Amino acid sequence: MADDDAAPESFPAPPLGNGRSVRRRGAGRPTLDTVARHAGVGRGTVSRVINGSPKVAEDTRAAVLAAIAELGYVPNQAARTLVTQRTDTVALVVTESQEWLWSEPFFAGVLRGITEQLAEENMRLMLTFAPRDGNRSDLEAYLMGHHVDGVMMVSSHGGDPLPERLEDAGVPIVLCGLPVGLRPVAYVDCDNRSGARQAVEYLAEKGHQRIGIISGPQDMAVGVDRLNGYRDGLRGHRLPVEENLVSYAEGFDEASGIKAARQLFDTAGELDAVFAASDPLAIATLRVARERGITVPDDLALIGFDDSPLAEVSEPPLTTVHQPTETMGREMARLLCGRVRGEEDGPLVTILGTRIIVRESA
């Protein structure tokens, strides 16, 4: 970029009689010209360093960065956006209510991973909500209006048009899990089917014969996969696959689990084990078991899915399937930043492994 093409900056503060500058609020901040003079280079060179151009010698880059650090220069973000066509900001869209967000232990781990990776990428995060039953038109317009460089979505359900609309509009997007019926896009998930199968196999190997499930929503691939993994585990041990052993929760939260657990205990007959498709669903099953005078693990073995902090502090501590939530968040952010930079040569899907964490409930 030629020096004349660099974005305009504010003028330096007027000099005092001794030649020193005065810093005032709103004026006198170090500018591109100040940095250029301090580093002994042209204004355009400073602009190229700030914008990450490779067309700068390393010793020159080092001099400019040293001048920036010494002067405390902060680039004009609006001007930088005009040059790079990037905002250095990505959005995390949660398609549930705010109440769900703060009560869902799975999300906390994912968010930690996202923020840690974005810090390494020098990217900012904007968190926003898009409940399925709300008006999304303003949010869609904002996300498609070049206010963010890309979007991550958590807890997407089948039939949600937002992921495809963003993809069609050229907005890079990465999903946490894949909604049922959605055409393939970039997403990160754990091996839900294998993890559920491991849980049921563990119960079967302990001698349990009547194993029920509190399943998650069937408009989410995670719900479908964990139910299929449950059935895989039963078939692998020649145990009955009966519909009355399945209770469908409306969500993965504890409130949904209480309703589903009561239904399961009412309709399944005698059970000696339950696999719950999330830790909150398992905690709900514990509560309902106590209501019915059923003791865990003496009368009923119980396994959850998540390995959230809830699992360790429940009474009894919960055997569960560990999924690496922080790694999932990191991978989402890493993959999205790669898409923003146009690095799409690698795989756009990351599936992470799971393992059983044995505690007292099973």
Summarize the structure in words.
The protein is α/β, with parallel strands linked by helices and 362 residues long. The protein has 14 helices and 12 strands. The strands form 2 sheets. It has a 6-stranded parallel beta sheet, sandwiched between helices. Helix 12 links the parallel strand 8 and strand 9. Helix 6 packs across helix 14. The radius of gyration is 27 Å and the shape is elongated. InterPro entries: HTH_LacI (IPR000843), LacI/GalR-like_sensor (IPR046335), Lambda_DNA-bd_dom_sf (IPR010982), Peripla_BP_I (IPR028082). This is LacI family transcriptional regulator.
- CATH homology superfamily name of the largest domain: Response regulator
Q: What is the CATH topology of the largest domain? A: Rossmann fold
* Beta-strand proportion: 5-15%
> Mean of residue pLDDT?
83
Unreliably modeled segments: 1-27
Query: How many distinct domains?
Result: 3
Q: Provide the gyration radius in Å.
A: 27 Å
User: What separation lies between the terminal Cα atoms?
Assistant: 65 Å
Q: What is the gist of this entry?
A:
This protein is of the alpha/beta class and 362 residues long. The protein has 14 helices and twelve strands. It has helices at residues 32-39, 43-50, 58-71, 77-84, 98-103, 105-120, 137-143, 162-168, 192-205, 221-236, 254-267, 279-291, 309-313, 325-340; strands at residues 89-94, 124-129, 150-154, 173-176, 187-190, 211-215, 246-248, 273-276, 301-306, 319-322, 349-352, 355-357.
